[in-house]
Design brief:
This protein has 350 residues and is an alpha+beta fold. The chain is built from twelve helices and 13 strands. It has two domains: 191 residues, DD-peptidase/beta-lactamase superfamily (Beta-lactamase), CATH 3.40.710; 109 residues, no CATH class.
Length: 350
């Protein structure tokens, strides 16, 4: 059963029926006392704390693949409704790159990007362009001036997003500091499209959406029709949880190896350090600790989060308002829901 974007759930019985083939839970049902995977008192307090965060829209908690808690906040959309996941798109795109390498569409993390994008290079290109690899784009180490932050508006207003990125000046060497840039992710989308002869959205739905039994609707395209790499993808909280479970399980879901396990290990290897958060960064995944446990997470603007705590079997999804100005207090509060609530509830649970 594939969930269409317009699917609505009217009652608990309908919810359980509709979602049985996906995660087996119900949007907005809160915490089930019968679930032994999380301590009920700690989890009830955590869900209540969510109501104190006006920007929070949903919270979904799975342990060992079983839905343990689900809540929609402040009039947010149902858990099966696609929402803008902002830069959490980068982590999903990274999975697509890993599959493309496995299928021979791309050659590996060491592949020079100019092997595919040479036609978009500026006249008399900086010779350092030839040094940038697929891995550098994924770890935000291209060395090129970022297109995110204050440069974002000018970049998306340019007539050719790919050429705009490649024409930007070098502010560090390839393989140097983490220079967070959606333009780097967009180059990956362009490489996927050029190397395969198919759109990034088509690849995304066939290689990830269909095997995961989810729908990934089309999203923003650049003036040349290339789907935006690293921003504005639309996925529901339930779809994000399904994707998170795929990574938690080493790329295998429903008995099928969808993403190579070696790619997930490579993605969770620290390669650079975020200049604005101080956290380690792999191939489009943030890395850290949740109490005494390893933590891997996808992070989108405003608080679109996929948290994975593999040692506890946890997959946690949080979505938030996307149109408000960036608020690091809200992001800190989301981390607190995980580290001070959900993780202790899992530690105390059966």
């Amino acid at each position: 059963m594939m969930l269409a974007p317009a699917t609505l759930i009217a009652s608990r019985r309908e919810c359980l029926t509709a979602l049985a083939g996906l995660l087996g839970g119900c949007a907005g049902t809160g915490f089930g006392q019968e679930n032994a995977g999380l301590d009920p008192q700690i989890m009830a307090r955590t869900l209540a704390d969510g109501w104190k965060l006006p920007r929070l829209r949903s919270l979904l908690v799975l342990r060992g693949g079983e839905q343990q808690a689900a809540q929609v906040y402040h009039g947010g959309p149902a858990l099966d409704q696609p929402v803008n996941i902002k830069s959490a798109s980068k982590s999903v795109l990274s999975a697509l790159v890993g599959i493309a390498i496995e299928r021979g569409v791309l050659k590996g993390g060491d592949q020079p990007i100019m092997s595919v994008l040479a036609d978009d290079a500026p006249p008399s290109p900086d010779p350092r362009l030839a040094e940038i690899t697929v891995g550098h784009l994924l770890s935000m180490q291209s060395g090129l001036e970022p297109t995110s932050g204050p440069n974002y508006g000018a970049w998306v207003s340019s007539p050719n997003w790919v050429r705009d990125v490649l024409a930007r000046p070098f502010v560090d060497r390839p393989g140097g500091a983490n220079l967070y840039s959606t333009g780097s992710s967009h180059l990956l989308s362009a490489m996927l499209t050029r190397a395969s002869g198919r759109s990034t959205h088509e690849l995304m739905q066939q290689w990830l959406g269909t095997p995961l039994n989810i729908v990934i609707p089309p999203w923003t395209q650049d003036p040349q029709g290339i789907f935006m790499g690293g921003n504005n993808m639309q996925m529901s909280p339930l779809a994000l949880a399904r994707f998170g479970e795929l990574y938690r399980l080493g790329g295998v879901i429903d008995g099928r190896q969808i993403v190579p396990a070696a790619w997930i290990a490579a993605s969770w290897t620290p390669r650079s350090q975020s200049l604005f958060s101080g956290r380690d960064y792999g191939y489009a995944w943030f890395l850290g600790r949740a109490r005494r446990h390893d933590l891997r997470f996808a992070w989108g603007y405003g608080g679109q989060m996929i948290y994975l705590v593999p040692a506890l079997g946890l997959t946690v999804v949080m979505t938030s308002e996307t149109d408000a100005p960036s608020d690091f207090n809200h992001l800190a509060a989301l981390h607190s829901l995980l580290t001070d609530g959900i993780v202790p509830a899992a530690e105390a649970g059966a």
